[in-house]
Amino acid sequence: MMNPKKERLGTQISISDQCQSQFLDDLKQESKASLYSNPTINIIGSPVTALPFDAQIKKILEWARSYESKVICVANVHMLMEAHWNSAFSSVLKSADIVTPDGMPLVWMMKLMGVREQNRVAGMEIFLALCQLAAEQNISIFFLGSETTILQKMRNKLECEFPSLEIADMVPLPFRPLTIAESDDIAQRIHQSKANLVLVSLGCPKQEYWMHNHKGKIQSVMIGLGGVFSVLAGVHKRAPLWIQNLGLEWLYRLVQEPRRLWKRYMSTIPPFIWLCGKQLLTSRYQSINMLKIVEKS
């Protein structure tokens, strides 16, 4: 008859071996998944890509050269709050291939959560970097959205600053929702242009929904850039660098467009701060509890 102590010991060893085996299997799966996906940090329920600016631009250009159908969301406080309130839009962000930290509050949050070297991956810098590198690497860009006058001003500026840039086409869009026929026609124009990159300016969340709905249908990397087109065209001014670094670019924009933006900012910034604080406190509490469990064991 087996000694009860030895039997318990054997059971413990067996369970320990099973746990170790399961841990190794999970680790292999995570390692395998990391080969195909980018590292992310969860900020109030949405994944934000935890890669420096240069690495994200490099990844975008790799996909563009291969004509891969990808969706890039350029996230700020407004976008993450839209995702927090709307489950359908949350699914859009979670299915995106890259979600860049456009706003400084997102960068600060990522640093607080351990991504110490994270820098800002903002829409304007993405736009300028892609135009410069696309011109050098023979990558063509399709500009979609905004108004005809803004697109023409953009074209003039781009031809001056990036003379070798291949502009596949520039297509304005109405403010109303597109019909199915119109949307299909645009997708066909992009396909015929053989553009590697599609820069979309429809505003959040319209542009994110549009890109999400066309993933797999358009063999190009689609990037939602919101108000970048109007800034580049000179219709709106961008905040000085020192204001950007202080995270006050929203205030600079509010002064320029108070009627359009005041309600958005007042309804998104305070709850974002509250949710981030709550997330940080919860994360800290869980870490302390986990430490206690480890110490007891």
Structural class: alpha/beta
How many DSSP E strands?
A: 8
What order do the helices and strands follow? Answer: HEEHEHHEHHEHEHEHEHHHH
Uncertain segments: 4-36
Compute the number of structural domains.
1
Determine the mean pLDDT: 85
For the sheet with most strands, the description reads: 6 strands, parallel
In helices, the fraction of residues equals 55-70%
Which range does the strand content fall in? 5-15%
Shape: globular
What is the number of helical segments per DSSP (H or I, 4+ residues)? 13
Major β-sheet strand ordering: 4-3-8-7-5-6
Radius of gyration: 23 Å
N- to C-terminal distance: 31 Å
Describe this structure in words.
With 297 residues, the protein is of the alpha/beta class. The protein has one domain (40-279). Helices cover 61% and strands 13% of the residues. The two termini are 31 Å apart.
